[in-house]
Amino acid sequence: MITHLANPDRQLAADIRAGSITFAGNKRMKIFGTLRCAQGKRMKRENRIFFQSIDEAINEGYRPCGHCMNVAYHKWKMDLFNNNIDETRNLLPQDGTVNYYGNILSPKAADRYLDYLLASIPWQHDEAVIFGKHYLTKRKVAWYADMPYEYTYSKVTKRAVVWTAELLELKAIVEQKTGERFNSCLLNLYHDGNEGMAWHSDGEKDLMKDGAIASLSLGAERKFAFRHKQTKETISLMLPHGSLLVMKDTTQTHWLHRLPPTTTVKRPRVNLTFRMMLR
Ligand SMILES: O=C(O)CCC(=O)C(=O)O
Ligand SMILES: [Mn+2]
C-alpha cells in the first residue's frame, strides 16, 4: 500500500505507467478502482491510496469498485458469500458423496429467480398414497423435464412439463458449476417453516442409479439433514438463498435426507432438484 501524499504526482504517474502500482483506493469509502472511473473522481486526493495488485487491495480490506472493476467486483462478492467453501469436500463420512457449493447466484439474481418461480410456476399440492389412503401435501410441487416424461413416486404417477427459459438458465448454471448433466427438475414450494419433507431417499427406479442430484435453494434459509440408514449418524447444514448442494454416488442407497419443519421461518422457500431420469 502506498499513500498518495508520500509520493509527488509526477512520481505517481510514472509508477502507474511502469505498472508497479495499479489501483487507487479511497481511504474513507474503502473502495478501490482504476483512476479513470467516473466514481473515482469523487475520491479526495488526500484520501487516495495505491495498491500493487487486486489481492493486495482486498487483503487490506478494500472492495473493488462496481463500475470500473466490474469483473473483480463480482468475483469479490461471490468470494465474500462463499468464504472458505471447499466444493470438493465430501460432507458424508462414508457410503456416498455430498458436496456443498455455497451461493452460486448473486443475491440480486437469486431474488429475481425466486420472484419469477413464485409468480409463474403452476404450483400444485403434491399427492401421495400411503397405506391405500390418498393424501395431499401442504407444500406444492412442479416437475419439469426435456420431454413430458411420466414419473412415479409415493405411488402416484405424474407427467412432466417442458422447461421454461428461466429454468433452462438455472439448469445451465447448475450444470456448468457441477460438470453434471440433468434432464429433469422437481420443484418444491414450502410456504413457511410449518412445511417440510420427511426422511426419505430419492431412489425411485425412474432415476438414474447413483446419478447426481443437484439441489438449488431459493428463499428462506432452512436446515437440511442426512441420516445413515444403518448407523443412524446424522449430518446437517443450513441451505441459504441461492445455494447449491449435490448428492451423488451411493448417497441415496445408504442415506436418508429431510427438510425438518421449524416454527421460526415465516417466509417461503423454493427448492429445485435437478435429476437425471432414465429414458
Ligand atoms: O427441499 C429440499 O431441500 C429437498 C427436496 C427433496 O429432498 C426432494 O424433492 O426429494
Ligand atoms: Mn429428496
UniProtKB/TrEMBL annotation:
It comes from the Bacteria. Keywords: Activator, Dioxygenase, DNA damage, DNA repair, Iron, Magnesium, Metal-binding, Oxidoreductase. One of its GO terms (molecular function) is demethylase activity. InterPro entries: Ada-like_dom_sf, Ada_DNA_repair_Zn-bd, AlkB-like, AlkB-like_sf, ALKBH3, Oxoglu/Fe-dep_dioxygenase_dom. PROSITE patterns: FE2OG_OXY. The keyword Iron applies. Transmembrane segments: none annotated. Residues 181-278 form the Fe2OG dioxygenase domain. Its cofactor is Fe(2+). One of its GO terms (biological process) is DNA alkylation repair. PANTHER family: ALPHA-KETOGLUTARATE-DEPENDENT DIOXYGENASE ALKB HOMOLOG 3 (PTHR31212). This is Fe2OG dioxygenase domain-containing protein. It comes from Parapedobacter pyrenivorans.
